[in-house]
């Protein structure tokens, strides 16, 4: 799960940059502290909507990209 680990390290770095604790971020995003911890360690466990909310609180965006190009 390298992608999740990279996502988690980005979330953690931004949280620290904003001087938020995991509990602060959890409260602001409406998720549990253990969910933030799991996300930061690359374990996942969050619904997409919750991930988008965490990112939004941190001023980040979640972007989905497809490696496939639609035939036109």
From TrEMBL:
CDD domains, alphabetized: HTH_XRE
InterPro entries on file: Cro/C1-type_HTH, Lambda_DNA-bd_dom_sf
SMART domains registered for this protein in UniProt: HTH_XRE
Stored Pfam families: HTH_3
Domain HTH cro/C1-type: 11-64
PROSITE patterns (UniProt xref): HTH_CROC1 (PS50943)
Protein name as catalogued: Helix-turn-helix domain-containing protein
Organism: Nakamurella alba
């Amino acid at each position: 799960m390298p992608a999740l680990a990279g996502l988690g390290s980005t979330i953690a770095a931004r949280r620290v940059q904003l001087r938020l604790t995991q509990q602060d971020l959890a409260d602001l995003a409406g998720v549990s502290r253990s969910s933030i911890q799991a996300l930061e360690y690359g374990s996942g466990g969050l619904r997409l909507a919750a991930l988008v909310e965490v990112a939004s609180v941190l001023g980040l965006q979640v972007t989905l990209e497809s490696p496939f190009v639609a035939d036109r």
